[in-house]
Amino acid sequence: MDKISLEAKTRDVLGRKTNKGRREGLIPAVVYGKGISGTNIWVKMLDFKRLIKKSGESTVIDLRIDEKDNRNVLIYDTQKDPVKDSYIHIDFFQVRMDEEIETEVELEYVGEAPAVKELGGVLVKNIDAIEVKCLPADLPSSITVDISSLKTFEDRITLGDLNISKKIELSIDLETVIVLVSEPRSEEEMSSLETKVDADVTKVEGVIKETAPAAGAEKKDDKKGK
Q1: Average pLDDT for residues 41-65, to the nearest whole number?
Q2: CB under 8 Å to 163, separation ≥6 — which residues?
Q3: Average pLDDT over residues 112-140
Q4: Which DSSP helix (H) or strand (E) runs through 176?
Q5: pLDDT mean over 117-141
Q6: Which of the pair, 172 or 196, is modelled with greater confidence?
Q7: How far, in Å, CA of 33 to CA of 77, rounded?
Q8: Separation of first and last alpha carbons in the chain
Q9: Which residues are registered as beta bridge partners of 132?
Q10: What sections of the chain are H helices per DSSP?
């Protein structure tokens, strides 16, 4: 596993006072771990975005605080501004390289499925990420799924078909179907989906009126055990 480095500096401001740092292109963050007290830090927005683009969020990072305090961390959580789509806070979780960790790894779909391109099928991705357990050094940034083997509507790619290291323990069965291609809907199926179904609303209302309890009434079962 190639180590990814990220520079950080200690942070002594909290709450709304961090807004000034955000305007200067910094992200407030915190580092914590098992038996480790939290440390407030700043990381540069540009550096963090580059890291995410290159390695994703499932990567062990060599976090260098004040150019002297090196820590192996994972991205535990991120918060983003819903309007600006920029990061406003990061949680880093410090790990020990000799202890196994449990985390989620994204699946990266690559290639082109002939059953989609040539037969007009629809690609169906059943899973976007999987839970794994392994040593930090064995953690992949993502797991590749090559869909070019999907040539017919009968073809399937299961978890067992993927090239995953034996050092990684998976949380789901190897026979789990990851992706497939479904047949395109026929004209008859499409037209039936567009057909409106008119329901007798008066009958539905009648059932509701007959079965609904009177206002203020209590169910007898709710009083059991009280």
Answers
A1: 92
A2: 144
A3: 94
A4: none
A5: 93
A6: 172
A7: 13
A8: 58
A9: 103, 170
A10: 19-23, 45-55, 114-117, 187-194, 201-211
Residue 82 has pLDDT above 60, yes or no: yes
Q: For the chain, which domains are there?
A: 4-95 (2.40.240.10), 103-188 (2.170.120.20)
The confidence score (pLDDT) of residue 147 equals: 97
Q: Structure pTM?
A: 0.71
Query: Token pair for residue 49?
Result: 């975005």
Q: Whose structure tokens read 């990814």? A: 4
Structure tokens at 215: 């206002």
DSSP lists the bridge partners of residue 94 as 33, 73
Place of tokens 């690609």: 123
List the beta strands (DSSP E) in 45-128.
61-65, 69-80, 87-94, 101-110, 122-125
Query: What CA–CA distance (Å, rounded) separates 180 from 175?
Result: 13
Which residue in this structure is represented by tokens 């789990």?
176
Is residue 137 a contact partner of residue 4, using CB atoms and an 8 Å limit?
no
CA distances from 159 to 135, 190, 219 (A): 20, 32, 48
